[in-house]
Amino acid sequence: MKKLMLLGGSRYLLPVIEAAHKAGIYTITCDYIPDNIAHSYSDEYCNISVIDKKAVLGMAQKCKIDGIMSFACDPGVVTAAYVAEKLDLPFQGSYESTLILQDKGLFRGFLEKHGFNCPHAKRYEDKKSYLKDTDFFEWPVIVKPADSAGSKGVTKAEHPEQLEKAVEIALDGAHNGAFIIEDFLTFEGYHSSADLFTVNGKLEFVSYSDQLFDMNAENPYTPAYIIWPSSMKNKYQDELTREIQRLMYLLDMKSGIYNIETCVADGKPYIMEVSPRGGGCKIAELQRMAYGVDLIESEVRKAVGMPLKDIVQTECDGVWCEMVVHAGFRECGTFKRIVIDPEIKEKYVKVMDISAKQGDYIMPFTGANMALGDIFLKFDTREELNEVMSESKKWIRIESK
Fold first, then answer.
1. Does the global pTM surpass 0.85?
2. Is the pLDDT of residue 401 over 80?
């Protein structure tokens, strides 16, 4: 029986474990939080930090694994690439390429070097070294941890006097002690976050989304709604696909899933993030329903060296919205339940996955890890979606005390 090591333990791993078990694969989950839900579904659990590369490698050798993944677990991606390279296991790319993709500063530098559209950006490790560069940027700027995901630690600074606090927030969210400052891009339309798949470096499945934010949330840069298909103009989608493909070849990427974030600003498309993992927020699960393409099954099979089934580019069946359920300031407190209008639920809701349990304490929406759950909704048209979702505060209620 093949063995698959999964870094992390969140609920986003449950469909991965299910797909592995269907394929007859033994699963081993790893992190330092024994109470995480995925450990109750895997075949074995190892209490090891996902960022401790050597410890994970030692356990992988002891368990004699056939594959390793860090699905929807951004901190573990570099570790997964390290272990895969040391043990000659399948992975999207080399350890060196993964380091570039997983560090926002290194990635911006790579994009600039190879002629991709890229905002002015610089990477720092010294928390005061940015002071000499304030004239380099076009204000306002965005300050981010170099190696975190889910919008954790991201802050907009309107002028240099706000940088000190923004840098402190970024470093609190960083694992490697580095942060970046880059020009703030004003999107034309919406930011996109979607999962893509390559086979031998060639893009075989591509999608783009509209990612909307809740500007009233504690962190207004954390995605609150993701919509498929994207309203991005086709010419920009085509150019992004060509540029993502060029990036894959430059980095000598192989086969696997990627979470890719893109946008359009000043009439130019930008590749903002490329991570060799499935995205959080259940993106691959929604895409499976919307496009009929199972990227989770494909990634599981790839990870342990099993033959891939055909991955076919398809069109989106209908108009879909993933609603990331989150609390506003008034709803913070002890969670009781979520109530949805019965008519809306019957007509539009296809999946309702609420992770918050009665008695949990609800925190402000500072990052994706503070979500209370996800709801998938399907509509016939974008106009119908816009009309219904614009009234969401009327038909969904978070009860707390």
1. yes
2. no
